[in-house]
Amino acid sequence: xxxxxxxxxxxxxxxxxxxxxxxxxxxxxxxxxxxxxxxxxxxxxxxxxxxxxxxxxxxxxxxxxxxxxxxxxxxxxxxxxxxxxxxx
Length: 88
Fold this sequence. Notes:
This protein has helices spanning 24-38, 61-74, and strands spanning 7-11, 17-21.
């Protein structure tokens, strides 16, 4: 992750890596999340970016699905899931 130039490196199928640019608002929100995340106690041993709401542990795939669904409902978006943006 290089938030100095607003981009992240994603790891895809077959171990391929690609750099993806972030919009300025997304980069700003991501920087804010990282600052907040780093203030949690015991987080130094968790290399994953997304962490569970409680405790110092990574957020698993099922947790990401649940959180995304709840955030969508809160925003008034029904039937929200990550795969929705795959080919956009």
